[in-house]
Amino acid sequence: MSGNEMKENGQTAEKEETHEHLPNIRRLNREELAGLMAALGEPAFRASQLHRWLYSHQAFDFETMSTFGRKLRQRLASEWSIRPASLADSESETVDEGSTTPLSTAKFTIRLEDGELVESVLIPSEERMTACISSQVGCPLRCDFCATGHMGFRRNLAASEMTDQAFLLDSEAMKLHGRGLTNIVFMGMGEPLLNLDNVFESIATLSEADYRFSISERKITISTVGLPAEMERIARSGLKTKLAISLHSADQGVRERMMPVAIDITLDKLTAAISSYNSITGQPVTLVYMLLEGVNDSPEEARKLVRFAKRGLCKINLIDYNSIVNLKFKPGCSSSKTMFIQRLLDAGLLVTVRKSQGAAINAACGQLATRQAR
């Protein structure tokens, strides 16, 4: 290799290393982008243009931002980097084996800019293509039956790190199934309501009407253990998203043993929060109930769930427990599940039973925890 080539290669490596150490402009929200453009002496509309380049065009290089002058592009490139999240690993599980066109639930490990990892799940069906995305690295709530809670809490995700998960899974859905996302659920790792500002920011980007990727707010569901103050914020935000509450027991003592947060957020407080949400939005909440053998699948538990659900405008979503290594729980047996469903139906409640998908690859509800954490 000639001296000139060595010099050029050294300069390229130095440039790449410098770029990696520049702050990531995708960590800035819309308000911060506006502040950046103002500080650069640019008109206010430049912030909207920059946001469009980052999230509609998904530009990874300032040079491609053709609506900006060269001087502005160079200034941005000298002070900022563009580093989106990336795919680190994937696993898939074939379901519906009797079908002539079996669909596969796929789990993706997503690497964030600082090297932290989260998991996202692509859940296909004949009618939908759903992305289950994470809002935190780990989770601080320590629910007894949940693998994510056992891995501890690392940090909140930035809004861009949530949108990146949706973008990546949309691209993978097109490759695997020839169609993109139709639904998004914030049901992955973490408690979305403990990172609500960034969740709001990501939803605003994902539902931007004239962006290349755009999904209706009505096709987005936020899942929570039930944090009353944050539920009130969602209700008053004007969002058209759906709200799901991980209930898992309508017995205060049982819920406390499974979910430590229930010690402070009692069923009475949760009832009041649901009623307030119903009143403000006019919409129901979905009570997610995971059946655990010998824990919450008895006739008495069914009776208590009926009584709780009838206090507000609620739908019931029953799901099977998905076994997790080193955790003590087992899924409810078929006979108790049948009994439980019938009692809810007899009480006139709207009940859906979610078929477990992704359990074999640790991608089902409650199973998400990165391989390092496991």
Domain count, please report it. Answer: 2
- Class per helix and strand makeup: alpha/beta
Coarse morphology: elongated
Write down the secondary-structure element order: HHHHEEEEEHEHEHEHEHHEHEHE
The CATH C-level class name of the largest domain: Alpha Beta
Number of strands: 12
The third-level CATH topology of the largest domain is: TIM Barrel
Cα gyration radius (Å): 23 Å
Tell me what portion of residues adopts beta-strand conformation: 15-25%
The CATH homologous superfamily of the largest domain is termed Aldolase class I
> What is the share of helical residues?
25-40%
* Unreliable runs: 11-18, 358-364, 366-370
Main sheet summary: 10 strands, mixed
Q: How many H/I helices?
A: 12
Order of strands across the main sheet: 1-2-3-4-7-8-9-10-11-12
